[in-house]
Design brief:
Elements lengths: L1 E9 L3 H12 L4 E5 L16 E5 H9 L3 H4 L4 E3 L1 E6 L9 E6 L9 E5 H13 L4 E5 L3 E6 L4 E5 L4 E9 L6 H5 L4 E16 L7 E6 L5 E9 L2 E11 H9 L2 H11 L8 E2 L4 E10 L3 E2 L2 E3 L5 E2 L7 H18 L7 H29 L4 H16 L1 H12 L3
Parallel strand pairs: 1-2, 1-11, 2-8, 5-13, 11-19
Antiparallel strand pairs: 3-7, 4-7, 5-6, 9-10, 10-11, 12-15, 12-16, 12-17, 13-14, 14-15, 17-20, 18-19
Amino acid sequence: MRETTDILISGGGVAGLTAAAAFGAAGFRVTCVDPAPPVTGAEEDGADLRTTAFLQPARAVLEAAGLWERLAPHAAALKVMRIVDAGGEAPEPRIVKDFDAAEIGEEPFGWNFPNWLLRRETVARIAELPNVSFRPGVATARVLTRTDAALVTLSDGTTVSARLLVAADGRASPVREAAGIGVKNTRYGQKALAFAVTHPIPHDNVSTEIHRTGGPFTLVPLPDRDGRPCSAIVWMETGPEVLRLAALPVAEFEAEMLARSAGLFGPLTLVTRRSVWPIISQIADRFEAERIALLAEAAHVVPPIGAQGLNMSLADLACLVELAKAAPDRLGERAMLLAYHRRRWPEVKARVTGIDLLNRTSMLGARPLRDLRAGALNALYSLAPVRRTLMKAGLGMR
């Protein structure tokens, strides 16, 4: 059986589903496939318990896709980014610096959401769009491109002819591999634990990143849970240490959390399971091939620092949608895809390099180097123009 469509999206994670909603809302015929059905409940097996902070520029993309009105009731605003250095002799705060969104505008830095909820709301939005077909449980099996179309064979035997094939199929992207695009990969010997906690001291919409060794311990605001303040935590450490922490009985794990959080929020109560994620940096050699555009983790992967990962992906999407809408009759043609690569690759490369440096700094174990890190934080923060420039750069604002 053979079908035709404007855009085939390979990958139904948060980025792929958002792309399906965005292109569908823009009037294109879209088919989105993913080998696994999306897990849309927090308690279900395989639920992604990580959270995503959508930064200011992402809101316009979500509004245009018809997603923002669905997501807004579940948002936890991020008004302040707090950096805490606890790299002294004892695990306690020695430097605390607040980057306040009010310094650069009226909006918060962004809004935080659980990843499983993003999938639930995006799947519901796609169901409203008659020109979008989402097929969970169906994989991309084979890719053949020609100058006028990508011919994609799906795992159910269907062949789809698409003017544009969007690879949103993850860091080990089969579509990227089929296109012969290489990647540069950096490993840190780190893993991350992701989970949620409640705590007695309110977060006051402050995202708090605590640095000691091994990587940051980051608490990101979530809406209250059972009447108690709640935060999502990403705890980065060396691989063996994360595996040790993940296996601890809950009471022992909570004691370790209290120490690593420098006691800033009081005793932390674990309210979800603990999931473990590998930490790498990765960038594809190019973001396009004949009739193919790479999106999100198929194009780039970064450590979870500064909420950059999915926001870079939405910037990819915004660029692709803009180019598609500017010349719909030339969708997927060489000139469009080269324009996409030229606009996104240098920007992404700069961010991957910057986040790599921040991550290596956060991993420092030797005390004199930790002291240097604290001094650099103090110096950068103390200069108001530098502080405001850093905040705008983090948001992707010019």
